[in-house]
Amino acid sequence: MYNNLDKLLPFVQRPARYINHEINSHKPDMANDISICLCFPDIYEIGASNLGLEILYHLINEKKLARAERAYAPDIDLEKLLIEKDIELFSLESQTSLKNFDFVSFSLQCELVGTNIVNMLSLSKIPVFSKDRTENTPLIIGGGPVMANPEPFADFFDLFVIGDGEQALETILNTYGQCKKENKTRKEILKELSEIEGVYVPSFYEVKYNDDLTVQSVLPVEDGIKQTVQKTFVDIDKAFFHTKKIVPYVQTVHNRLNIEIARGCIGQCRFCQASKYYRPWRARNTENILNLLDKGLEATGYEEVSFSSLSCTDYKNLEELLLKTNEKYSSKNITVSLPSMRCNQFSLKVAEYINRDKKPTITFAPEAGSNRLRNVIGKYLSETDIVNTLTSANAMGWKTIKLYFMIGLPTETQEDIAAISDLIFKVKKLTKGLNFNITISPFVPKAQTAFQWQAMFAAQYFNDVITKLKKTIPATIKAHDYKESIIEAVLARGDRKLSKAIYIAWQKGLRFDQWVDRFNYDKWIQAIQEAGLDLNFYVYRQRQFDEVLPWQHINLGITKDILYKDYIKGISETDSSDYTNYKRDINLPKNYSLANNLPTQANVRVLLKFSRKGVVKYLSQLEQIDFLRRAIKRTALPVAYTAGFSPLVKTSFGPAISVGYESDCEYVDLYMTEKISEKCIIEEIARVLPEGFNIEQAKYLPLKFPAINALVNVVEYIIEGVNITDEQINNFLAQEEILIKKVKKQKETIIDVKQQILSVTKLSDNKIKMLLKIKQQDNVKLSNILCSLLNLTDNEIKILYIKRTKLFVNKDNLFYEI
Hints:
The protein is 31% helix and 20% strand. The strands form eight sheets. Strands 20, 21, 22, 23, 24, 27, 28, 29 and 30 form a nine-stranded mixed β-sheet that branches. Strands 2-1-3-4-5-6 form a six-stranded mixed β-sheet, covered by helices on one side. It has 25 helices and 30 strands. It is an alpha/beta fold. The protein is globular and about 90 Å long.
């Protein structure tokens, strides 16, 4: 267990990624005999938004199946520190090394996370390859939609969960607990686990190859192992779903309450792997969703809720759900988002419920430009539907529409590419002031889909088409890196040999390959070649029906015959008729009127005083502001709200505090609609604060009294861990000028801070007190002044203990403490 974060976090860019105690996180139950670390192979800001990982985290802890903790991929700065200081990668909650858990699981959301998985295992001192692990090594589990073809990652994992994880993981933990009591060996435990529905143990299967490098067979290595692994799935209306979402300290990619309203998709898109992996379509009962919404908003203080599924507008009772949500929460400044809507007028109908008089960007995915090609890919959406939807959206007030298209689709021609431009021009002529943001992505054939046999288009084709579209379409065009798509294609339909290529890519320093600025195509090509593999074999080769596919022993519930018939049907499509087979009521709402999100009257103002100690000192000022606003919203206080599209609790904050500093004096002006006792305010806020934050005081101020940030002009600090004499302090202060170099936006200036330093007092052998003036211009940070006073480097200053103790108003040489 690593218990000295103060030696690591001052030296990383975003330390709040690596601290615990977030609202609704679980304190680790160290007495539980079984432990599991749920890992996400990307940074915290992305992983913390993953709904699947959070469902499992709460399920395990609330049912006490095991001690469940979390870990996310460290960014490059922390990785370097871990290696330099020989510290193993640790969990978020208890800072326990990953190698000391019984299980370490990874959620694979895309194929390009392989190098991050290898990196996290290596940083944890866990053998990267399953064959090298011993009895005392944790069992490594993989899950997520990439499990449609787990083979390229097989050498790194002890077992995979194919399908939904809720029931499977519960059974895995219970079975493991029994095996542990019986002192079974690692192999015996894996044998027991392999009998669970949805569990795939790759070491129990042998892959044989033909002379042409295609797969000859994937067969069990011994009797008693199932020939194929059947996907597991749950009834989501009866399955566990948490009521208290974790509220991160940092801004995440989806910083909102996320409620899954359905799983699966009723669409027929032949390219879509997710719809095959998550089938069948299962919807949550509307009343259950509303119950989860009530509890979730109360527990989090979020201003936005997302009703999520692969296709939100297919949810049967969506209109009822939105109406009831708006009736209850529109006056409480809650906004609703639907992340996936079909391009039809029913989507505009429901968009009216969630946007009312506000019209942000609305997003649709036609995928292809022509009717024929949309029919080929199973996206049965007519041009008439698209044009009517986009023109209606413009008439209803939308000025910007985001569209997604793919290129390199099976049977695609230059006429199909031209149809994208033609479609945009047609809509432009029929609308006024409508702008388009268009994302172009290369099509990547995926395992377990109707197009799994299809060869990918050549790299030059993607380059030429993207260049052409950028020149011809009157819109903002963003194109996905086609080289990244090529490597994705290698892994999407690859076999076990690719584990070696992933490992070599990691050895070459590759990390975060799913990030545009971190991806390195040339090094990937080198890794594939050094592994003795041929990229063309995996990407540009047309598969035959009778070929044994590397993932053929993974059964998602759709037979190979059915997929192939659908494939032939798709590529044989020639019909360009303007029709759709998707029908739903599209009558726009009539006489629909709800209260808009308006600012509420601020009738009283109360000044709140907080302290922050421990790991929460690593929050930045902006992170602290967001956190405290959301915490206050979870209370029953009669708070006032700001105006705007996303109203916030009306507050103003005191002077900014630096990351890494503790404080006894964090101030917030809170505006409320009515006056209640200070004691009640303190009790309500104390109820919602996590460990590390305390509310110290609440007192009323006149509404028109100046803001706290405008009043304060002097700050007192206590600094511990210093080595300085009184003589050195006096000599420092006796200088005619105290010049400090300040760098801002790569511009260097020299500032005299003598007038900013009011006093420096030695309190003990290693402790001083400083009183600094806050200047409106040319203000210099305490850390810069300390570097000059103590003759230390910036890194040496970071390991000092610093606390902000008091704030003052200095007027006419008199000091008034706030």
